Amino acid sequence: MRVLIVEDHRELARWLQNELNHVGWQSDVAYSVESASTMARHGFYDVILLDIMLPDGDGMTLCRQLRHITKAAMIMVTARDDLHDRVHALDDGADDYVTKPFAIEELLARIRAVLRRTHGDPGPVLEFYDLRLWPEERTVSQNGVLLSLSRREFDLLLVFMQNPNRVLSRDQLLEKAWGYDFYGESNVVDVTVRRLRDHLSPEGHVMITTVRGVGYMLRGSHD
Fold it and tell me: Which residues are reported to carry the modification 4-aspartylphosphate (predicted)?
């Protein structure tokens, strides 16, 4: 997932970029209409987040222009909450309209919803009891409720979902989820497993168990 953030407020843009990176989505920032147009022409983006008020133009005009050069979903993210602005933006080609201030959880949910509408099927899904994980969309739900995981938590759960009911050593988890062989002692796997456990519902049907002296295993909680 790659997102272009078009926002001239640099602190907000950095915060948005950090939040998107936190869930494993790549993102770039454009601070003006000119730079946004150039980046959209030469880069591939799944989603473009557009502010309306920009230093060298307005986001609505940019939205109309971008419709001719990219198939990315476009979401207006702006402090302007007038009904006329909303209607104007949607008529100009925006796929959604989010007003500031907003909760990051809502924005992420709206991005996922827009992608489902514009891109259709989110791709193959891994299922294990009440867990469903979409690798391409990098989303996961338990009993229909979306889980907000960090990039590393998602990567680790993906490894477990690809190897259910199988004991995985810490070295195997490091190699598969972190992407490198590790020599020596580290608690990075233990810490991430602990955080991942906190996300899983205690009333759910899956659990990550510790196999003492070996590693961890994802299994059904009633097995």
Answer: 51
Interatomic CA distance for residues 21 and 19, integer angstroms: 5
pLDDT digits (tens, 9 = 90+) for 19-54: 888 777 889 999 999 999 999 988 888 899 999 999
In CATH terms, 126-220 corresponds, of 1.10.10.10, 3.40.30.10, 3.90.170.10, 3.30.2420.10, to 1.10.10.10
Tokens of 6: 């078009």
pTM equals: 0.61
Ranges in the chain annotated CATH 1.10.10.10: 126-220
Task: Give 111-132 as a DSSP string.
Answer: HHHHHHHHH-S----EEETTEE
Integer Cα distance of 195 and 11 in angstroms: 28
Cα–Cα distance for residue pair 212/144, rounded to 1 Å: 32
Please tell me the class of the 2-119 domain. alpha beta
209: phi then psi, degrees, rounded to nearest 5: -100, 150
d(CA 123, CA 71): 18
DSSP letter (8 states) at residue 94: -
Block residue for tokens 């988890």: 173
**Strand-strand pairing, 139-142 and 145-146:** antiparallel
Please state, as a whole number, how many other Cβ atoms lie within 10 Å of the Cβ of residue 38. Answer: 12
